[in-house]
Design brief:
- The protein is 72% helix and 0% strand.
- It is built from 8 helices and no strands.
- It has 203 residues and is mostly helical.
- Helix 7 runs antiparallel to helix 8.
- It is flat, with a radius of gyration of 29 Å.
- The chain has 2 domains: 65 residues, no CATH class; 123 residues, no CATH class.
Length: 203
Amino acid sequence: TRKICKSRQLHEAACGLLLSYAWLVGHESDLRIAHERGLLPEFIDFTTWTELINEFLENIHLQSLSGVSPRYQYGELRLSRLNKIYRVTRFTWRDSVRGYMTTSTWCQDFVTRNFAWLLAVFAFISVALSAMQVVLAGTSNGKAFENACYGFSITVLFLVAGTVLVVFLVWAILFIYYLHSARINNRRVMQERKDSIDYRKEP
């Protein structure tokens, strides 16, 4: 291919594009989707595709990706990270809530996905409080240490209450948002059905 394309930059870009297709189309089901989406022509069957990709990969160093344009050397971006990028960079209410692609809207999945790390934090705090309780009960300590333990305990109580309140508020806001979106979508679907029926009734 280097004899066909004299431009090194263009050759590296073409190799990168073909390499991205090699990552995307790895099974026959992927090839069917590529045909449906118009990514690959229909006359390319899976046997032809695998022969082409195998010959291509023999001339690509997959470890260093030398000869491939740098723009194709970053690999895939996880959906969770892509959703976070969308929420930070696209200042719309829809993108702030949904991100790039909507994931599960079940309450259990939402709490597990976003607040599971709080369990570890509360576990460490519980261990610290238990240790302080043992120390205070077993020995006579100074007034400063007792005041510090008292202040820490009160802070933890407020922290737990505040965290529960924040989780509840976030869940309530999302619940209202998805309920409103469902109603809007339902009205749109019903209007489309009505328009379709009216169109069929016209002579």
